[in-house]
Amino acid sequence: MRSHHLLPLRALLVVLLAGLLPKLDAQEDEDCAQGLAADMYFLVDSSWSMGQENFEHVRHFLYTLIQSLHQVGGERFKFALVQYNSRPHTEFQLNSYKTAQGVLAHIKAMSYRGGGTRTGLGLDFLIHTHLTAASGSRAADGVAQVVVVLTDGRSQDDVAEPAQVLRMAGVEMFAVGVQDAVDWELREMASQPQSTHVFSVDTFPALQSIIQDLVVGLCDAVTQSGGFPVANEAPVAGGGTAQDTADLVLLIDGSQNIGAANFPYVRELVLRIIERLDVGRDTVRVALILYNSSPVIKFYLNSFYSKSSLLDAVKALTYTGGDESNLGAALEEVAESLLSETSGGRADEGVPQMLVVITAGPSTDDTGAGDRALKRASVITFGVAIGDTATADLETIATDISFVQSASDVREVANIGDQLLPLINGVIQRTILVQNEFTEVIQSKTVGNRDIIFLIDGTMGPANINNVRNFIREFVESMPIGPDQVQVGIAQFSASPRVEMDLNTHGTKEKIISALSTIKPRSAQVVNIGAALNFVRERMLQPEKGSRIQQGVPQLVMLLSSKRSSDSVEEPASALRELGVLTLAAGAKAADEQQLKQIAISDDAVFYDKDIRPLIRTKKEKMISALSTLAGGVPTTTVTEETIVETTKMVRDIVFLVDGSNYVGSSNLPYVRDFMINTINQLDVGPDRVQVGLLQFADRPKIEFYLNNYRTREEVVEKISQLRLTGGSAVNTGAAMNYALDNMFHSSRGSRRRQGVQQVLVLITGGPPQDQVRSVADRLALAGVLTFTVSSGQADEAQLQSVAFVPTLAFHARSFSGLPGLAEQIMPELVTVVGDTDVAVFQEETVVGAERDVAFLIDGTDRVQADFAYIKDFIIKVIEPLDIGDDKVRVSVVQHSERPTLSFYLNTYKTKDEVIRAVQGLRVTGGRSLNTGSALRFMKDTILSGSYGGRAAQNVPQFLIVLTGGQSTDNVREPAGALKTDGVVPFGVGVKDADPKQIEAISHNPSFAFNVKEFSELSTIPQRLNNYVSLPREELEVVLQQVDTRRDIVFLLDGSDDSRNGLPAIREFVRRMVEELDVGEDKVRVGVILYSDDASIYFNLITHRSKKAIIYAVRSLRHKGGKSRNTGAALQFVQDHVFTTSSGSRHLEGVPQILFLLTGGKSKDDVSRAAFGLKQIGVISFAIGMKNAGQEELQKIAFSSRYVFNLPFFAEILSIQPDLVAFVQTEISAKPATVVESPQRDIVFLLDGSDNTQSDFPAIRSFVEQMVETLTVDENRDRISVVQYSGDPQTHFNLNTYMAKQDVLGAIQRLNHKGGISLNTGVALDYVRKNAFAESSGSRHQQGVPQILILLSDGRSQDDVASAAAALKQEKIVPVCVGTSNANILELQMIAHDPSYAFSITQFDDIERMNDQLVSLLKRIPRQQPRQKSQSPLASSGSRHQQGVPQILILLIGGRSSDDVRNAAENLNEMGVTTFVVGIDHADTLEIQSIAQKSDRAFHAADINNLSDIEQLIISTMKEIKNPAIKPPSHDPNGRDIVFLLDGSDDSQQKFPDIIDFVKRITKHLNVDINKDRMAVVQYSDTAEINFNLSRYSTKNDILKAINGLRHKGGYPHNIGAALQYLKEHVYTPMSGSRHQEGIPQILILLIGGRSADDIRTPARMMKQIGAISVVIGTSDADTLELQTIAHEPKYALPVAEYGQLPSVQEDVLTLIREALHHVEQIAPTAGLDSKKNDVVFLIDGSYDSLNGFEEIRSFIEKTVESLNLGNDRDQVAVVQYSRDATVNFYLNSYSSKNDVLNSIRTMRHKFGRPLNIGKALEFVRDNVFSASVGGRRADLVPQYL
Question: Which helix H or strand E contains 1321, and what residues bound it?
Fold first, then answer.
């Protein structure tokens, strides 16, 4: 990992250092114009924050600067230029232009790009792309390298690391900041001295003022770089050479030795030390640890790589206190946890490691072990002693006595920094070299031969596991290890045990110590020590595992545990003693000391302490002594089978049937698992002993594994430990028991019922059965199955006694925690009770759907000759569990090499024995190469066909297992695809040289592909194959559909001030999650959002396409900061801006959407609505709270209670990371959360009654009948209405016409077809909204009853549906659409609630199959908030904007808004509302200006009493507003300006000839002339460029020639938003030939071949604002919603499968071009504004913050109103107050007289509320106050003021 980050540095050093040795000593005093050369690189910010106008200033600055540098440096100075935003772009390289004139000409023509601000990425780009010989760099010739960075804001990524790489390579770094640039970031980039390398100006025009100083600075830098050899450069404070590296650990006494009052002095010393170091990833790294009785790591060496972050972390340190000062334990912690590579240590790279200990008193524990460990690691130790008592200890541990600095008093400690820093810098700069002569003498022990097994509790956590590993390492280092000396084995246990290494696995110290790192902690709530001791005895103390027990060598077992055992330890411990095994027991934490004494051979062999760390530290010597000296008598008798308890010889088939419902829940699942594991650990699991199967159920059953899936106890326990609940509210126990009998107790699934083996069902449940169980229990009993019941929770104990075979086999625990203990009670009955096993009375039922065709296609080439036996064994293992027979499973085998060779067909053999004999007799056919593709075709056409035994025609599942040991020489993808299309399920098995990509291409999906390195490893695969092949058909269908492993994962991270200290843990959590995910554009996508007061995107789901890029970005993550924590707003932000198609979300493709919220406290705002919104769109939210987070709030946010985690500390988050990543990697349903069914619904059926549906109308009528049959029709339940439409709509009956189902059905049966040629769906939608869903028609929307519209359509609408659909949704009506193949699916998706609510069928005869699906959908629609009543014309509020009356809004603000105001302000501006904004007290000036249309309409009052002057200004401004008449444009009816915007990305390169052909076809139909049709062509990819503009050619022939000469642009990705912005700024302008100001139609024809990588919404809106009519043609890879957003209206969005099919839409395009004229006529204004009338709206701050000034605000409004001329045909006034939401005091048409208005204002009360949502309030005013229905007169061209 480290070497990766240094690759750029190493590459640079090789090139740069080789050539920077000076040859110019004589020129040291000369300036840069006298002979010295330089390579100068300009890295220029061109982000959106700069803007086009300011970019012109940047261009002018660069032009003048380079011109000046050329004058003083001549041709010796070479220049390169890179623009950067979200990604860097090379303008020119050093060797692009031979003269300065070429450089200057390029700068003059350079275009502004726009985007984000990723300065770090730009610096990285320079390193990799420009600072190379190939790009013209002359570093190897000793030429100075200079970089100038120009930026106007803070970078969105880390700049420190790439800048450090450049500086360390000798590059001179200059930083120029403009406007909002951050000073500390500029300094982070710049070289020393920063006074000459950092330049800052406040405005862009001011850049000209620094050119002279910058030229001087650059010249000096060139001269200096030529004056000294880089290799011998003297170190400068804050700078550094390549050698200036060190790892520094600060160890601070936090006990009472220091004291709370003195701790700030110590903290200040640390700050002073760090401040003067060159901190960075590749320079000095710093870690810090506080200690008292125990050490606490505050941050690691790799936690912070920037000095500012490090200083912030130190400033946050607090005094810990404590009586003890255990320096020894702290030194050991440093040695064990802070110096390794994983903690950021670089000892392996030769980087010196230092420790500075600061203490004010003696240590209260022994420092010897820690001191030795540090000296062994060559750590250089310094000491700071405060007072007299600390010096002795520090002199003992310090590397040299002179390295201890003393202060008599804590107040003098600050001065010690000046003494200590030279020592630290001496180590950093290698002027202090310490020869470590420490040698640790290990006592030579006379240790006899012995076998020692360490038995470790794996649940003790990562830190304690690390301590145990270190203990074992020290022990091994001190022992004579070898096969004839001391042997060591290790086993780990939790609920079940497993081997880490056997006694004979490793024969040397080195191998054992190396293997220790593989021991990882395990998660479990209980431990079973008894089972673990039995495991050691039965599985490890065996001769074949290395045990020398039979030779009399002492056998020792050392137990280390942190918990009490859940099972009995007495008998297992006794069994070990009987063998002569010497058992030692060490325990801590929750371990039971009495149990430890039962286990150990004597009390002297028991070691116990309160924690693992002190246990090992204080008892280590005693434990090592005992292990190396104890000896005992070992029985000489041979260990025989009789040592195993008798019950293990039992032979049974046991199926566990587990309740997976919410009655058990994830919190109780561990107890269920532990019960099963405790039971199984007492059984002898094996194919000829006990077999175990597992089935889970809730509303339906799910098989986890069959009886014959696993052959050992360990495998079964491992699988059970991975069990996850299915969840569900139903408990269908009877159905699950039936299913178990029919599907589990069957010979094909491993049941041995026919051989008389007892069949056992163990039902484990926590809830009452919700179906019939008694009769099913009888059926099981008659079949000879013994049923046991184990229950807890809400299970009915009495009922379960009747379910059990006999009542005594029913076991119940009062709480789930008691379930594990029931294992001891159930065992006697489980091994002794026998049911009726007379199989003659029970005829085994044939499993329905058990037929299978299984074909093997195996490698038959010469290369597999030696391994063919493994292949045959593989086939036999796959087919052994199958029930082979002519009417059951059929098997075929084919070998292949260059051609396929048949071994036998599917119908050749009828029995399993025959098949196995045939496989055993196979011989390799031979051949040199593999043509697997050809063989796959043979399998499809011949082997799996009906002629040779294939049963696909009978719907029998067909499986193909392809096994190869090499790469195919022909194509496998197409024939594999043909097999899959035919329904065959292929598995790919690759061995040795097989191509994994080919194996994956062959397989049904990636999870069906298996790859192993050797043929001997094939034995691991058959079981996994059988899991699929043996599945019941219905489950197989489900599995085959579960192929999507894609995920969209968003991390929403708390960036508020409270969470600052938690950032390292949060960052590490995200990094670990990403590290384990399968990241890729078509796999897992990741986004990171930071929030506090507001939310901001750090990177979204499409920003990074690789794991490496995401991890790099995560490591650079910085704290956001902010006082408040508005989690609700952040959740809403994520829904609106992140889980969207434009941001990379694939929710429309069914990809699971997952949100991880990490928060450190309670939200300041409400989270309920936003959380519910996320659930509604199917986002699975995990709510992870730390520190002060509220449990109730987390539960509201989380998708379910299982996804809530509330942790006490930030660091604890790492403990749950493995569980969370495991969830993400498992099967996830992407469907939205099921919501509680509403008992009431208002349902309107809108039926297509046009002529097209006449023959289909009976089917439509029948469908409506069937739907109504499933509903509960009643006045207080479901109400039904039916409307039919064609050109116009017609109501058949309203929601309140019929209240009984029979009446509704009768009315439906009487329906007659309406008829009509046209189909106006838009008109019909508006009609049902206004009439069918009206209260007068029976709608109950005011009671929150769901309003549902079911639209049935057979064609494309002939009118616009977009606005009507939007109006429906705005009124909370949920449209569900069903269309035939004649309907337009995109149109239906636009109308529908969301695209998943739109369904397509071939014809209406097929509609019946939709019935169940639609009923299910209707039941999931929840109750809703009541709609706001729309005002009738009489009760409306009077806006006269439709009559041309000016609309005025006067907004008073007393603070900064808590939401975004920009979009709302822009929308008001678009409506023509004139907005005056008055800010008071804490209002934000920039926010005020952004809301106001012009700066002279934005006012700020320092005090509430200063409003009178502003009042007069507003009144006078309102009177001066003039409304000039707008002259209707004139245009040539035969003229059009047509622009083609062509996809020029890398993806379109092969199809570019098709694109050119299409443009030529359209051109031939145009009437090209300078006064008629004009044409332009622009290409785009990541950028846009003009091929020719509208004024370039005036004849058709010239245009066709230009088109023929077009060359493909190239580039990636598709930045369509930037391309549209480019058109607006560079193409649709008079200079480029556009005639839009003359009223000529502006037409855009846009070709899209993929999803845009940037936001298209704002640019698309701008195109519509300038009147451009966009026709958009998209391939199948384009995003449908993007097409519709850009297009003029939905019918202007035309889909094609790929560019080769463009001719199919040619006629549509020509038709739309011809229609363009009509649109121009429609939008042309016809009159000027009426200046005698004004609509004035006052929007005032009604929050708590404005309470004290409310009287002044009211007075201000009164005075303003006094000056107006109020009346119906004159001025109108409205007043609205807002805080969290907006409330109308009165509307524009509420009062017609001035007195009424003034009286209302005088009686107006303060609203109250928090926070201040100005954006929301502006939107409210736009939608509800300036509308015509409430008095707005915009349509009458009346000015509107806000």
Answer: helix 1321-1327
